[in-house]
Amino acid sequence: MGRKSKLKGLLGGSESNNDNIALDNNVAINVEHVTMEFKITKDKIDTLKEYVIRTIKRNKKEKEKIRVLDDITFKVYRGDKVGILGFNGAGKSTLLKILAGIYEPTSGKIQINGKVAPLLELSAGFDKNYSGKNNIYLNGAFLSMDKEFLDERYDEIVEFSELGEYINYPVKNYSSGMRAKLGFSIATLVEPDILIVDEILSVGDIKFRKKSSEKINQLMSEGVTVLLVSHSINQVRKICDKCIWIDNGKIVMEGEANEVCDAYVSNANNDKKKKKKKK
Amino acid sequence: MFDTFSEKKFLLKELVKRNLTSKYKDSVLGILWSFFNPLLTMLVFTAIFSMLFGRNIENYPVYYLAGRLVFDFYNHGTKGAMNSIRRNANLLKKIYVPKNMFAISAVCYEFVNFLISFIILFAVMIITGATFHITLIYSVIPLMFLVILIFGVGLILAVCNTYFSDIGYLYNVFTLVLLYASAMFYPIEVVPAKVQIIFTLNPVYCAMSCFRQCVYGVVPDWSMILYLAAFALTALGIGILLFNIYEKKLALEL
Questions:
Q1: What percent of chain A stands above pLDDT 70?
Q2: Which residues of chain A lie closer than 8 angstroms to B5, CB-CB?
Q3: Which ipTM value was assigned to this complex?
Q4: Do B219 and B138 form a contact (C-beta atoms < 8 A)?
Q5: A7-46 residues touching B, CB cutoff 8 A
């Protein structure tokens, strides 16, 4: 057993992806010159045979690099509620995924100060054959909670999810609404310092929608830092006090929420008018 | 995320549990198949090969099972780790989970299976009237290095298979060769002496043969164990290095 734990130590030791060196205590997220490129080939080489043949023939297709984020730099201070605006494909979700640790940026540095709770995908970790009960533990494990914590909060999760009896049935028999409710109940259990949200997740029926948005508001109100991506300008105006507007992977504007929102909306309207004129 | 050891341990436990429950989920006998599977193939092989090699091998059922346990553990362990990243692609693209946990959990799960199948070995030993030698204690040493070897090879394969999906198919053929090059179901003596030297270069054969020696009451061959240890530790070193370099980039390849 000792050997195994040593092995895990070796493997685990190198993954401290966010080393906190000399970071101002008031800064929650520090993003410095982050660039993200995806390699895209029209016909992706993912078999060895093709790779070898193309290497020999020397016609390895030039890989097209798509720059999704281009030299992004910003700071988020503790307690800030920052909205990220941008049209589809601007790079918002990629940015959130980098902050959540799913992707490693091509270049640049990210420092994060505090416990992050990414509310990006709520039912990604479900095992369909597991009962709701087992899924609570499995999903909790994926979200970096430990057993004691889950044992303590188990009743709370079941109650919030409104599943009652059904918690002992396999998830494959759940309706999509039930699944979403359970996922939401687990994911929002955390007590994070930094909350990363991709679109406010209001799931389930009217009753649960109200409850879930209350829960999110409660999470956000407790002095946590919030990073919110949303296409609902009203929501951003209501929740955020600062905004970042990203277009084509670059920061277009950064500042006070209402100002940026106004500029963003007028830009969107202008675009529409231009297109109409062209027609 | 995943800073404390208890969080990682819990994740590992949950992953192993998921593997255990999902494997036999629709079968009536469930986990019992872990017993029946090797037992039934043992009966088949015993029926066939006792006739062929019956005189050369003392207690063929035990000889076969001891080899089979080691080979199955290696085979399934490395393949489980190899496929672990691709199999969980959906998850890894959506939430952050240390990727090595999937590879480690796959090997741990096979290790549990390996321990379960020991019960069969012991049961067959009792039924066939084989004596339990004190040398059985020594078997911990080759098995320990076998575990290290599997971790190492598994990590290397996990990275390679994520970049090139056909590594998986190639490896399937390779393990078939390895099966025949491990003298699992026949005595090594049927192979010409010159070829036997090649066999000793196969680390799985080394682990298997040392383990068998322990079961049959012989002190294991230390030179073989030394070779196995060197091979296993090198593989683990390369595996950890490779995995650490590519871990962050794996999500982009999925």
A1: 84
A2: 5, 8
A3: 0.83
A4: yes
A5: 7-8, 10-12, 14-15, 17, 38-39, 46
